[in-house]
Specification:
It is a single chain. Helices cover about 60% and strands about 15% of the residues. It has eight helices and six strands. Strand 3 and strand 4 form a beta hairpin. By secondary structure, the protein is an alpha+beta fold. It has a six-stranded mixed sheet with strand order 1-6-5-4-3-2.
Length: about 260
């Protein structure tokens, strides 16, 4: 899988986070201006082109310095820094437009209903339970219950359930040249224009759990977690995927109703 230096990966993650914020704001529509155009082009062209230019350099030559005295790694980090600063500035411009809108909406609400201080306090409502999250929680609880304490059993049961319910997200690794028992699995969950790859492997000392941030096929960074933290992250992200994907939601509902 294609790799970039850790510092570059961190900058890409920050740029993607800024672009996610912008995407949520742009989803509500509004006029097309320089800020919105630039933010969309950064996601569609500027960031991918920057990464592709670096990845086109053979790995064996990435330590060599050009006429300016900088290596491809250093050039990539400088260019990502430039993109991050520009993206943050465009996001501020977009946010300023939103601030004007929320202030105008506040004035409208006051005109329509009167000042908030003149209205009675609202009684707190009971929080609603998200159906997709509830489905995923039931699924994960069932995997842990049926697997028992053995690490190899947890990986095997999880792989079996995921293969039945979300085969499009699952990759498994078997022992003995690919013909033995399942030793590890990867569940790659789309998150906007990138993906989170949840890795689970059975080791002699227990379970090895990690998450890899993947942007356009490029593995940016892998972090290890304890099993409880890993499961919580899987719960949230798989729940969001199930909420977006109607077919998976229906499949999971039918499976859990059996």
């Amino acid at each position: 899988m294609m790799q970039v230096p850790d510092e570059a990966a961190q900058r890409v993650s920050r740029i993607e986070a800024l672009l996610d914020e912008a995407e949520r704001m742009l989803a509500h529509g509004g006029s097309v201006d320089e800020a919105s155009f630039s933010l969309r082009e950064t996601r569609a062209r500027y960031l991918p082109d920057t990464l592709r230019a670096y990845l086109d350099v053979p790995p064996s030559l990435r330590g060599e310095r050009d006429a300016s005295g900088r290596t491809p790694d250093e050039l990539l980090i400088a260019q990502l820094d430039h993109l991050e600063r520009a993206t943050a500035q465009r996001l501020r411009e977009l946010a300023a437009r939103g601030t004007e809108g929320i202030a105008a909406n506040g004035a409208f609400l006051t005109e329509r209903f009167g000042p908030a201080t003149a209205l009675p306090e609202a009684a707190p409502a009971a929080p609603a339970t998200s159906v997709p999250l509830a489905l995923v929680r039931t699924l994960l609880d069932g995997i842990e219950r049926d697997a028992g304490p053995q690490p190899s059993s947890l990986v095997a049961v999880a792989a079996e359930r995921f293969a039945a319910l979300v085969p499009q997200l699952l990759t498994v690794q078997k022992g003995r040249m690919g013909f033995g028992a399942i030793e590890a699995l990867q569940l790659t969950i789309p998150v906007g224009d990138r993906a989170l790859r949840f890795n689970l492997a059975a080791q002699r000392g227990g379970i090895e759990a990690s998450v890899t941030n993947v942007v356009r096929g490029i593995a940016l960074k892998t972090e290890s977690f304890d099993l409880d933290t890993w499961l919580h992250g899987l719960y949230e992200n798989l729940g969001a995927f199930v909420e977006r994907d109607r077919r998976t939601r229906e499949t999971l509902t039918r499976f859990l109703e059996r």
